[in-house]
């Protein structure tokens, strides 16, 4: 072996030893493509980008997240199935869709389940919630990273005023395609119609639906006030979003990467949830200025009473009461 060959051999060996000395985590990079249905102007998109930046910074670039808005990677239900198969992809979703796998967890997006950000954040300490999340991961391959992303109160947006459940009779209201959504809207008086978020605008134009139940920033971001005239403040669901990834992929991460992903998810989520509280008021004012009628004199007691039928239909009354008791202790 020539002296030059020997030098190269020793240099390569030294590089390998140096890399090993820093631990295996630095020797391999991990990536996550994160998908959500909302537009680039929504507060959640900026929040997800902050989450990604902080994870990358905290792992010295070892775990890189790319955020895709407006369902650029595909329809939510399809993404969740890819997650279950182990793909390095994530999705912003909700308890209603998770309820397709673990029925009990759907209560989180049931009518009038929680009434404040503090109650929503306290769900992380619920033993029952933890059991459901373990079941999602172990039996269905879905790892919940966190669910501190609260999108605000959902209201009915229509082209006529709604003050009581009876006012919704005969109206086809767009909802996501999950049992708790369908039963909630049915219990509150309307006819639920499953439709993807991106199809709402043309669906309203073509009169495939008569309205939607969404949060205020959804309306301004998607210009839905062009096809809807009334915001009826039923506040029937405080929308809690779940950030999910593949359990197989998550378990393959170094432990400190797992911790970074979870802790930064919670921090960015809680920050974004408070930003949305302010954004909601701004969106409401913007819509009112644009001519949308805000119906505030809603019979909330009648809607709360009607909402119980959704839990009864899905046999979730006991689960609801159990979790509510745990977060109020």
UniProtKB/TrEMBL annotation:
InterPro entries: DctP_fam, TRAP_DctP, TRAP_DctP_sf. It holds the Pfam family DctP. It comes from the Bacteria. Gene3D superfamilies: Bacterial extracellular solute-binding protein, family 7. The keyword Signal applies. Transmembrane segments: none annotated. Keywords: Signal. Residues 1-27 form the signal peptide. This is C4-dicarboxylate TRAP transporter substrate-binding protein.
């Amino acid at each position: 072996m020539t002296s030059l060959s020997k030098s190269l051999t020793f240099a390569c060996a030294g590089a390998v030893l140096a890399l090993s000395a820093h631990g295996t985590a630095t020797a391999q990079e991990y990536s996550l493509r994160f998908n959500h249905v909302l537009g680039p102007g929504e507060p959640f998109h900026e929040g997800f980008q902050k989450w990604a930046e902080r994870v990358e910074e905290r792992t010295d670039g070892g775990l890189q997240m790319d955020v895709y808005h407006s369902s650029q990677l595909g329809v939510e239900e399809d993404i969740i199935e890819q997650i279950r198969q182990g793909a390095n992809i994530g999705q912003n979703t909700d308890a209603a869709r998770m309820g397709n796998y673990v029925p009990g967890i759907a209560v989180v997006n049931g009518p009038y389940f929680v009434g404040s950000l503090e109650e929503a954040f306290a769900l992380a300490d619920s033993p029952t919630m933890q059991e459901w999340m373990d079941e999602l991961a172990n039996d269905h391959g879905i790892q919940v990273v966190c669910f501190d992303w609260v999108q605000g109160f959902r209201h009915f947006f229509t082209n006529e005023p709604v003050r009581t459940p009876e006012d919704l009779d005969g109206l086809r209201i767009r909802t996501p395609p999950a049992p708790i959504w369908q039963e909630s809207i049915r219990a509150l008086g309307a006819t639920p119609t499953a439709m993807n978020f991106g199809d709402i605008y043309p669906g309203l134009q073509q009169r495939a639906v008569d309205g939607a139940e969404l949060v205020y920033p959804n309306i301004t971001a998607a210009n839905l006030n062009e096809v809807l005239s009334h915001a009826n403040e039923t506040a029937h669901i405080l929308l809690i979003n779940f950030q999910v990834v593949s359990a197989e992929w998550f378990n393959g991460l170094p432990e400190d990467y797992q911790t970074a992903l979870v802790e930064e998810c919670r921090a960015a989520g809680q920050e974004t949830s408070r930003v949305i509280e302010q954004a909601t008021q701004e969106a409401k004012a913007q819509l009112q200025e644009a001519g949308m009628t805000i119906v505030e004199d809603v019979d909330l007691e009648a809607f709360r009473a009607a909402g119980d039928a959704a839990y009864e239909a899905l046999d979730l009354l006991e689960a609801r009461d159990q979790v509510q008791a745990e977060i109020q202790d």
